[in-house]
Amino acid sequence: MNATNLSGLRVAITGGTSGLGLALVRELLARGARVAFVARHEDDVERVAREQHGAIGIVGDVSRKEEIHPIAIQVLGRLGGLDVLINNASSLGPVPLAPLADTECEDLEAALATNLLGPFRLTKALLGSLTASARDGRHPLVINISSDAAVNAYATWGAYGASKAALHHLSRIWCEELAAEGVRVVSVDPGDMDTPLHALAVPDADRSTLKKPETAAREIAALIAA
Amino acid sequence: MIAAHVPVQRAPDARLLVLDEHGVMSHHTRAEFLDFVRRGDAVVANDAATLPASLFGIHAPTGRAIEVRLAARRSLLPGDVRRFSAVDFRTPTEHRALPPPMQAGDSLRLGPLTASVTRVLAHPRFVDLRFENRAGDIWSGLARHGRPIQYAYVQAPLAIWDTWTRIASQPVAFEAPSAGFILDWASIRSIRDRGACFATVTHAAGISSTGDEALDALLPFDEPYHIPASTAALIEASKRNGGRVMAIGTTVVRALEHAANGDGTITAGFGIATQRIGPATRLRAVDAIVSGTHEKGTSHYELLRAFQDDVALRAMAREAEARGYRTHEFGDSVLLVKRARS
User: For chain B, what is the radius of gyration of the CA atoms?
Assistant: First the structure.
């Protein structure tokens, strides 16, 4: 593993205390990036901040409108700017998964709040910093974590799939619009991973067939370095 | 004039009063400021995001409730976040007793934050504070407990997002660099489409009013700023090709003029603007300013006197009054071009 190729890069990751988010915190720190991560539960944030030397932990819930600016203030205040935003925090919708006809409206709203509105609001709040990074010649990047459920119609994945499809399309439009400002926005499908979110969705999955989140984190780090 | 009382940053009916280089006045919609941007110009805005700098809490020695308004910081560095200057505050509409007098060594409990008064500055209500918490806890305490500084003329409680411009970046301003509300991403694109360039400075805009005459006489406080190398380069290129520098807001003028060299070039990097700008100032970098409307006697008004003479400014004030221009940070705008020297 190349341990230094992201030296000095300022990165924020949402959903950074488990699964892919935690693997990204580790991977990007190991490559020399300065990493701030966001998660909802204070205990988890403190544990990860303790275990991952140098990681900056921020308690916040991206699905809540009034928490977006407090999160942004802490990210920017503590990193002194931002080059890469990874919108990784995700909500599955109804647990256990359910057909759309049996999905409560509130569960769909919760999935949209975390998977679509949260990334939209946080990107918007941090866009001033990302464009400042571009004016400094640092090639800022927003990575929205997507899923093959954003493209394929899987029964019972309606809330999650629809919200990720919207995020995927939002990413493409934003990338078009922000090209002039020097900010790239990409949607990345990391594949089916052995994470707590997958275990909630498919409790009886054969975990040996699932991708390790560390592998996906390495791929995303390579994308950032490219 | 009419105080703007609704926190709408981009009121669709906002207006723009223009005073050109000959002192000639004209009225426009605010969006038409783009028509005054020419090929080769550099439009420079302050991209500071606004801290929620109003902290409610308890003055420990007396047990009385106080509101502390953070007003200045010596540094823009992320880790150097312990020391601030602040004023203690009461709202003018409530006619409460003055806040308890503060003395060096007093402890303040401000929600999750603890601060101590390290010294009283040039006024009994103007002090230096030191937060006793760790840097990370200070940032989270400010972000979660702080509220935007709010004046009585805006009735609805301000949310943080009401105080952030579209381009808001580092959270170092104590009040919104409100002239920047004129910009959105489409207008920035339009600036470039006109063959002009867009650049930013980050300037820690301090509070503009304290409600206390003696304290207001000390404004503006010293304000740290950062000018990116790319901004200095764009301004230099623009000047070389006969373009003008249009500052979006008084803070941009203060930063650029502080960093300006005799030949109009700008020194990039960190600095602290300590100067006052007024009628005697010879502007070296900035050729035009977009600003809110400002009342006579304020430091912002004094700054406008560097662009235009008193006769023109008085005529502008009368015209704004007569036509009902809305004052303050969520109101209407003015564009002043530096008066041509005959």
Answer: 20
